Amino acid sequence: MSKSIPLIHKAAAITQIEALKPYIKDIWPIVHYSKLPIYLDSTSAQFIPFRAFSRLLQAAFEQLPHQAFIAFIQRGATSYSKQIAHNSKQNNKVNSLARLADLLPIERVYSKHSTLSKHNSEFSLAFTLEDIEPFSAI
Q1: What letters, b where the CB count within 10 A reaches 16 and e where it falls short, cover 91-105?
Q2: pLDDT band at 72, cuts 50/70/90?
Q3: What angle do CA 125, 135, 52 make, to 5 degrees?
């Protein structure tokens, strides 16, 4: 049986940390608790353990009021999606959905577009996440 460690692109963590700064004055305790690598900006590593990223989100959830937490998540997600879109435009060979699947622990992305009538259309997007098993050692 093989075990794998789910990874996420370090830019997701950097973006979420930046989004947290307006809500929490000293973010160092949260970053330390989450066990994120300290030098995310300067390391050549592109990916970090997803568990560390999820611990960052959990710590923020525990410290922020619910509305602030939702705003924090939305701010980070919006910023990160803009980064992905910008990077995809620079690299015309890769579309945004494929790029998103490369940067998040997503196993598969499926999109469907259908025209219901002359004025109505429907677009659906489904993500199949990688099976993330709890693990105690990284």
Answers
A1: eeeeeebebbbebbb
A2: very high
A3: 65
